[in-house]
Structures are given as C-alpha cells and as structure tokens.
Amino acid sequence: MGFDTSGLLPLSDALQGMLEQLACCCDSEQLPLPEAFGRVLASDIASPLAVPPFDNSAMDGYAVRLADLATGTPLIMAGKAFAGQPYQGEWPAGHCVRIMTGAPLPAGTDAVVMQEETQADGDRITFLCEPTAGQNIRLAGSDIGKGACVLQAGTRLTPREMPLLASLGVATVAVHRPLKVAIFSTGDELKPVGTPLAHGDIYDSNRYGVRAMLARMGCDCLDLGIIPDDPAQLRAAFIRADEEANVLITTGGVSVGEADFTKQLLDELGEIGFWKLAIKPGKPFAFGRLPRAWFFGLPGNPVSAMVTFDQLVQPALAKLAGQHFERPLQLQAIVAEPLKKSPGRLDFQRGIMSQGPNGLEVRSTGSQDSAVFSSLSRANCYIVLERERGRVAVGETVTVEPFGGLLL
DSSP 3-state assignment of 169? Predict the structure, then answer.
C-alpha cells in the first residue's frame, strides 16, 4: 500500500492516502420515502413536476389586469380564489378577483396587489398603489423546473430533504444499504460498565463513543465487545468481523509497545499500515484492509480515539457508504486565555467558543491530556493549532472547528 512509516505523517496526507483507495461498497435498494430517512441516495433525483405547478399568488390581495387600473377608478370584485379552489367564473373588464396566497391566478392576471394596499367599500375596491407587471406572482416552475435535478446521489436524507421529496410526489427512492461496521476494544485492563473494578482495571469507554458516532452516520454496528490480549480470541474476532462486516474498527493496541502482536496478526490476515500521525491527540493510528473488510485501528486513549474517528474515520466511512462528505466549517476566533502548545504536531485542543464583545472568542476546557475525556465532554469546538505553532497568547486569532454531526 506504500505506507510511509518513517517520521510523523501529516493529517492531510493520511486522509488523502486513505480516500484514494476507498470506494462505495454498499448495494442499493428501493425504499418507500418514509423508510428512507437517514439513508444515502444511490442515484440523482429529477423533479417529476414543476414547482410551483401553476402560476399562483404570493400574497393575500387582489388579482388585477393593468389595463383595468389605467382608468384610476375603483374595480368591482368579480369573485374569490382560494388555494385548492380557483376562481372559475367570468372576469369582465373593470373587475378584480379577491385572491389568497397560493391560489391559482385567473387567466389574464397581470399582477396581484396586496390587500394592505387597497381599500374596500363593499365590492368596490380602490387601489392605493400602481402595481407593475408580475408583481406578487409566483410563476410555474420558478422554484424547480420539471426534470431538474433536485438531489444528487450521495445525499443523506435529513429532515430538510424529506418534505422536499414529498412535495414532488416522490413515493420511493433508491438508497444505499447501510454500511456494516464491526467494532471491538482490546486490552486485559478493560472491564464492562456495571461491573466492579479490580486494582489496575478501567472501564471500556471507547466503544460507547464509537457506537454513538456510527449511529449518527446511519451505520449498522456489529459490537464484538472487549477482546482480551489473547492471540486465539483476537484472531477469531478479526476473522468474524471480516466475514460479517464491511469495516472493522478497533480501539487500543496500535501505539508503540502495544502494536507488535497486533501488527503480526494483521499482517497475516491482511495488509495494514501502522502510522505515527503528526496530530495531537491521536498520534498512533492504523489503516488497511483484511481479505474482505477495511480496517481502522484507533488509539486506546479516549480523546485520541474520538479525535481520530472524527477527523479520519468519519470521511472514510462516508465514502464507503456512498455519501458526499464535506469538511467541517472552520471559523476564526480570538483567544480569551493563554493556550499551551509545543511545535511539531497539528493540535486539536478542546475549547468553548462563545460570542464576545469583539466577536467570536474561545477558551480552553482545561487539561488537554488525551486520557481526560471530560475535556471533550465540556467542549463545543476544536481549537485547531497549526503544526509549527507554539504557545498562544491572549488576543491572538486561532482557527476553531465547531462540533457538529458526530460530536454535537
């Protein structure tokens, strides 16, 4: 696979190297629209009709012909038009039609005058303005033309897209089947939540974060639990994941001093690269593939696991699932308190951004140790500090990346 195992690999190079090797591996299926929520479109959707499907009023008011207004005399109301109940009577000269928002325009309408710009005396309507042609009129197809592409393949269906498709009468859609991801944690020191801890034990927390992020992405999760540092059990877990899932994600066993046994096992089963990334937290990371499934090895430290998943695994899984992925929004903020930083690695510090008197401000959540998960739970953004940047003083400008999607 051409992995560079010397030195520290920049995050951008690692991400590009992965994405160049990946392609969608999920089949497609047709689903009724209500069942397709959260799925990724497998093909473009063209509008089967124009939106709006007919010329209609953008206001409550009166449909008029400009020639009838030229006399400057009041017009007689000929009738009324409502949404779903168009005016179908005759429209003699010197008359107007009372019309409600969304109602089809009577034939010959030049403009709609909003009711606030009129004065009614029984059926006699005086107009207090001089409308222009096309005023307050929504033309057929002005929003969406018939046959226009409204959603592209790779779009995940959210509450924004569902009513759009329903408004077009789209009853079924082609979507990708969910990506199936197997996960497990490694380490003899890990214990399930709800059980007592012996001296030297810790609770397995990483799987809960990974499972939650997979759920946010719409993946099917095969949770294999905690696998002890036992060759036979690890081998069995790797083989099962490879047979039953598209992807395997593990936490732990990829850092210096840990990776030798895991690396030996994975080298036997597939082709895996163990990387030292130029990021903090999250330097140890593994990527490659087993005979059938792709593999991602996350660090064991809780914050490192979440950061590497968020920055590397998330875009990789999106591509495997057939989804268009956009990098998170990055903003500029003023530092409200000093930040510790040593040059050498791109640093994703956990911060709290807020609106200050001079614009967007950000401050640290406290300890940035990769084992201190509370620093992430209190944060609402990453403070992204460049690789060669050192300490940051109050008042300096930094890049912040608001949490969204997976970590919100």
Answer: coil
